[in-house]
Write a structure and sequence with these properties.
The protein is α/β, with parallel strands linked by helices. The protein folds into 3 domains: about 150 residues, Alpha-D-Glucose-1,6-Bisphosphate, Chain A, domain 3 (3-Layer(aba) Sandwich); about 220 residues, Alpha-D-Glucose-1,6-Bisphosphate, subunit A, domain 3 (Alpha-D-Glucose-1,6-Bisphosphate, Chain A, domain 3), CATH 3.40.120.10; about 100 residues, TATA-Binding Protein (2-Layer Sandwich). The protein is built from 15 helices and 21 strands. The strands form 4 sheets. The chain has a 6-stranded mixed beta sheet, sandwiched between helices. A hairpin with a 4-residue loop joins β18 and β19. α1 packs across α4, α5 packs parallel to α6 and α8 packs across α12.
Length: about 475
C-alpha cells in the first residue's frame, strides 16, 4: 500500500464503516474506500458502469470526504449521481426513486465530531451486512481494484422529492402539536417541513444546522437531548416530542407528560395500530426488545406473528425483507416499514409519522395510550467488559449452560425456563414472560446484558443476579459500564 494512504482496518464495522478523520483514515484512504466499493458494486451487479447514489450529512468535512469517495468510485467506472445534503433514508429512497444500482452515504450518524463514515448498500433498501463488509475490507486493503471510465452528475432538488413522498399519503386529521428536535444535525432541514406537511403544528428545537453541535450530539438515546425535548414538550403543552439522530434514521419519542418512551414499547404500539388494518402480518423485533410482543392480546387477535431476531439495523432490515414482514422495530430506535408503508429501510421521520397516525386514530393522549400496555420492569442495556478475542467464545459457553438449565428444569426464582432463543447470543424466557439476554456486543469489547419481568422488579433483579453469577464464574468478565 502506498505510504500516503492511511486506513485503520478496524474502521470496517459489521454494518458500516467509521473512522476518526485524518487520524484513522486520510483523504487518500477514503478514495481507496471508493475504489473498493466501486469494484464490489461491479462484481455484484455484473455491470461495467453501475449507477451509484451518493449523499452527505452536514458536518464541516463531509463534502471533502464525499469528493474523495466519488473520485474512487468514478475511477472504477461507476456513474455517480450526487443528491447533495441528505439524510441516510433520503439516499436509500433515491435508490428506489431513481432506480439506481447502489448507494453510499457519507455520515458518522450521531458520533461526536471528528468521526466520519459511510453507510452503503447494493440491493435496494438493504445496507451492507457483515459478509459484504468483510468482502469490501478485503478488496480495499489489498487494493484489488477494477478500472473503468466513470462519470458524475448532480441531481437537483431531490430533497423536495423525498419530502413530498413522505407527505403525500400521510395526512392526519387531528392538529397535533409536536416538538421536533434535531440537535442541530441534518434532520433539521427535513423533519419540521415533513411533519408540518402532514398536518402537525411543529415546535422546532435546535433545527438550525450547526456542525459544531453546540448543545449535544444529535442522538435520541442521549439523556441530555431527551431532557431538552421533555422540557420543551411541557413548556409548550405539546402532544408529543420527537428527537432525531444525526443522519435521520432513528427517532426518540417523549410523551405529553415529558416521559421518554422506550423504542420497543413505541414499536409495540405502532404494531398494534397497524395490526387492526393489516391482519395476519409479521413483525420483526430485535432480541433486546420487550417480551410483550410475543404475548400481546391485540396482535394475537389480529393473527399477527412477532419474530425475535439479531440486534443490528442491517440484520433486522434483512429479516423484514426475507420474511416479507410489515414492519421491524429495533430497541435502539431504528424502525423499518415495508410496503405499503415504506420501502423496508429505517427512516426516523417515517417512524415519527406512524406515531402521529397512532395519535390520530385514538382519542387519547400519548401518556394514556402507553399506560394501557402492561407494566414491565426492565434493566437498562448493561455492558460488562469482555475481550474482543474472547467474547464470542464466552457467549457460546453460556448458551450451553443455559440450555442445560432448561433441559434439567432447574428453577430460577421459582420459574423454569420455557424457551431458549439462540439467534444472537442467548435469550431465555420463563413461564410468566420474564426473560434475560446475554450476547456479545458487535462493536465493543463487551457483552450485552438485559433482563425484563412483567411480574416484579424483584424478579428482574433475580434474573440479573443469575446471569451475573454465570458471568463471574467464567473468570473473563471485567467492569460493567452500568449496573442495576
Amino acid at each position: 500500500m502506498n505510504q500516503n494512504i492511511n486506513i485503520d482496518p478496524y474502521g470496517f464495522r459489521e454494518y458500516d464503516a467509521r473512522w476518526l478523520y485524518e487520524k484513522d483514515i486520510n483523504e487518500e484512504g477514503i478514495t481507496n474506500l471508493g475504489k473498493g466499493l466501486g469494484t464490489q458494486i461491479k462484481v455484484h451487479t455484473k455491470k461495467n458502469n453501475p449507477r451509484v447514489i451518493v449523499g452527505h450529512d452536514y458536518r464541516s468535512y463531509s463534502e471533502e470526504i464525499k469528493s474523495a469517495l466519488k473520485k474512487g468510485l468514478i475511477s472504477t467506472g461507476c456513474y455517480v449521481e450526487d443528491v447533495g445534503l441528505s439524510l441516510s433514508p433520503m439516499v436509500y429512497f433515491a435508490q428506489f426513486n431513481l432506480d439506481a444500482d447502489a448507494v453510499a452515504m457519507v455520515t458518522a450518524s450521531h458520533n461526536e465530531n471528528g468521526w466520519t463514515g459511510v453507510k452503503m448498500g447494493i440491493k435496494k433498501g438493504l445496507t451492507h451486512a457483515p459478509e459484504e463488509m468483510k468482502e469490501l475490507k478485503d478488496i480495499t486493503l489489498n487494493e484489488k481494484f477494477s478500472n473503468g471510465e466513470g462519470s458524475e452528475k448532480k441531481i437537483e432538488n431531490f430533497q423536495q422529492v423525498y419530502k413530498d413522498d413522505l407527505i403525500k399519503d400521510n395526512k392526519i386529521n387531528k392538529k397535533l402539536k409536536a416538538v421536533v428536535a434535531c440537535g442541530n444535525g441534518t434532520a433539521g432541514v427535513f423533519a419540521p417541513d415533513i411533519l408540518r406537511g402532514i398536518g402537525c403544528e411543529v415546535i422546532e428545537l435546535d433545527c438550525n444546522l450547526d456542525w459544531t453541535f453546540p448543545k449535544y450530539n444529535p442522538n435520541p438515546e442521549d439523556l441530555e437531548m431527551l431532557h431538552a425535548i421533555a422540557k420543551a414538550v411541557k413548556d409548550n403543552k405539546a402532544d408529543i416530542g420527537f428527537g432525531f439522530d444525526g443522519d435521520g434514521d432513528r427517532v426518540g419519542v417523549i410523551d405529553d407528560q415529558g416521559n421518554e418512551i422506550f423504542s420497543d414499547k413505541i414499536g409495540l404500539l405502532i404494531a398494534r395500530n397497524l395490526s387492526n388494518k393489516h391482519k395476519n402480518s409479521k413483525f420483526i423485533v430485535d432480541v433486546k426488545s420487550t417480551g410483550l410482543y410475543s404475548k400481546d392480546k391485540i396482535l394475537l387477535e389480529n393473527n399477527c406473528k412477532t419474530i425475535y431476531w439479531k440486534t443490528g439495523h442491517s440484520h433486522i432490515k434483512r429479516k423484514v425483507n426475507t420474511e416479507q414482514a410489515l414492519a421491524g422495530f429495533e430497541k435502539s430506535g431504528h424502525f423499518f416499514f415495508n410496503q405499503p408503508l415504506g420501502y423496508g429501510y429505517d427512516d426516523g421521520i417515517n417512524s415519527a409519522i406512524h406515531v402521529c397516525h397512532l395519535l390520530d386514530n385514538q382519542n387519547k393522549k400519548m401518556s394514556e395510550i402507553i399506560n394501557e400496555l402492561p407494566t414491565t420492569y426492565q434493566t437498562p442495556t448493561m455492558a460488562p467488559f469482555c475481550k474482543d478475542e474472547e467474547k464470542y467464545q464466552v457467549v457460546e459457553e453460556l448458551v450451553k449452560q443455559v440450555e442445560e438449565i432448561k433441559d434439567n428444569k432447574t428453577k430460577i426464582d421459582d420459574q423454569i425456563i420455557t424457551e431458549v432463543l439462540t439467534v444472537n447470543g442467548v435469550r431465555f424466557s420463563f413461564e410468566d414472560g420474564s426473560w434475560g439476554l446475554i450476547r456479545a456486543s458487535s462493536n465493543k469489547p463487551s457483552l450485552v446484558i438485559v433482563t425484563e419481568s412483567p411480574t416484579s422488579d424483584n424478579r428482574k433483579r433475580k434474573i440479573f443476579d443469575f446471569i451475573d453469577d454465570l458471568l463471574q464464574k467464567t473468570g473473563k468478565i471485567g467492569q460493567y459500564d452500568q449496573k442495576i
